[in-house]
Specification:
The protein is α+β, with helices and mostly antiparallel strands and 152 residues long. It folds into two domains: 30 residues; 104 residues, Immunoglobulin-like (Sandwich). 20% of the residues lie in helices and 34% in strands. The protein contains one helix and seven strands; from the N terminus they run αβββββββ. It has a four-stranded antiparallel sheet, with no helix packed on it. The relative contact order is 0.20.
């Protein structure tokens, strides 16, 4: 009879362990339940345009600086319109110089670096390209200009 009690005790202990583990599993499942919450909002845009005219009807796509001699400079005026919903700070960067050493002899500057323009405002920006007096020979070059607007 003792053997039967031992088997019965073992069976009850095993069943209790399974029930206890199932309870733990249920608790673990309940502890990781997820609920979805929808989200929406609006961000302020940084959007501006570059134009040849102060009425902002002729979009600027490229600037042809023409023939420049060593020591010479040339300027163009573009109009920047803040077309977004928040003020932007203006910046200017150049890149992709071809040939790559052109940036050693040619520099582009403008008069609007760091200026903040309010939404729907137009400002005239003068870009000046200067060729170093140390430049020699005939040089054909190209580069990209990025006008950068940073939301304020």
């Amino acid at each position: 009879m003792r053997v039967q009690h031992t088997h019965r005790f073992f069976a009850i202990a095993t069943l209790a362990t399974i029930v206890l583990m199932a309870g733990v599993a249920i608790v673990a499942v309940e502890a990781t339940r997820a609920r979805n919450v929808g989200n929406q909002g609006k961000g302020k845009e940084v959007n501006f345009g570059l134009y040849w005219d102060n009425t902002c009807t002729n979009t600027t796509i490229a600037v042809d600086w023409g023939m420049l001699s060593p020591g010479a400079a040339s300027s163009v005026t573009l109009y920047v319109r803040n077309e977004g919903s928040s003020p932007v700070e203006l910046g200017l960067r150049t890149q992709n110089w071809n040939p790559t050493n052109t940036s050693d002899y040619v520099i582009l500057t403008w008069n609007r670096e760091g200026q903040i323009i309010r939404p729907q405002t137009v400002v005239a920006a003068t870009l000046t390209l200067e060729v170093s007096a140390n430049a020699s020979g005939t040089m054909n070059f190209s580069f990209d200009t990025s006008v950068i607007g940073t939301k304020q």
